[in-house]
Amino acid sequence: MISSFALTDIGVRRKLNEDYVFACDGKVGNLPNLYIVADGMGGHKAGDYASRFTVEHLVEEIRACGEKKPRDIMESVLLSVNRELFDVAESDAERHGMGTTLVMATIVGNTLLVANVGDSRLYILEERLRQVTIDHSLVEEMILSGDLDEKKARNHPDKNVITRAVGVDRALVVDFFLEDLSRTKAILMCTDGLTNMIEDEEIERILQLDLDAQLKAELLIEDANRFGGKDNISVLLIDPGSEEEDD
């Protein structure tokens, strides 16, 4: 049986939480379950508006979507909500240029389907922790091209420059990933407020502890704040269960 726990924190330095999280272990429209983590950006509280608007409209449109295939559902609603958010940004000077990163997932049987835009991430824990999504960021592009070392990337001055986000353009390109969950112990979805503060090795150490999901989420956020808490921090942990439990 699938179970999840989500936690979001303002961090140490921010005055507003621009992250927004949704988790439902049961059906949402034609999807068997749904998990979303978003990290808004923009001044005048526009980032807060962008993440909330995007997640709430995605959930609403998924519930109304007539598509049957999970990928078709996710792609259709993402493209639709992207246009809606872009139109709001274009019509409101205070929200012009706003947008949000987004990572969205659903588990169908023993398969994980992930949609990603921006630099919020999804990891799976098997014997080791593995990042599934690929950041849409300037630094990630420099790493992939061989122009930047991964260790130096953590402190690069352009670390927070993202190259793709929901709402910033009328057109949107979404990355999709499929993962077999037969050896997966846990799934982690999070904003960069976690991953910019804590190394993957420390995240893995906490996820391997013999604790429930709530305590693990609390430890992750405590660590991120202890190491600076420079941004909002959101953590969504999913226990995918097992085929035996689902039968």
Can you offer a commentary on this structure?
The strands form 2 sheets. A 5-stranded antiparallel β-sheet has the order 1-10-9-6-7. It has 8 helices and 10 strands. The longest helix is centred in the N-terminal third of the chain and has 22 residues, at 70-91. The protein is of the alpha+beta class. Mean pLDDT is 92; it is low at 243-247. The chain has helices at residues 46-64, 70-91, 138-144, 150-153, 192-195, 200-207, 213-226, 243-246; strands at 3-9, 19-24, 34-41, 99-108, 111-117, 121-125, 129-131, 175-180, 186-190, 233-239. It has a single domain (3-241), classed as Phosphatase 2c, domain 1, CATH 3.60.40.
Determine the strand fraction and express it as a percent band.
Answer: 25-35%
Q: What is the CATH level 1 assignment?
A: Alpha Beta
Distance between the termini: 9 Å
Let me know the average pLDDT: 92
Order of strands across the biggest sheet? Answer: 1-10-9-6-7
Compute the gyration radius: what is it?
Answer: 17 Å
Instruction: Tally the beta strands.
Output: 10
Instruction: Return the CATH architecture.
Output: 4-Layer Sandwich
**Unreliable stretches:** 243-247
Oligomeric state of the chains present here: single chain
**What is the N-to-C order of secondary-structure elements (H for helix, E for strand)?**
EEEHHEEEEHHEEHHHEH
Give the tally of structural domains: 1
Structure class: alpha+beta
Biggest sheet, open or closed, and with what strands and sense? Answer: 5 strands, antiparallel
Number of helices: 8
CATH topology: Phosphatase 2c, domain 1
Global geometry: globular
Within CATH, the superfamily carries the name PPM-type phosphatase domain
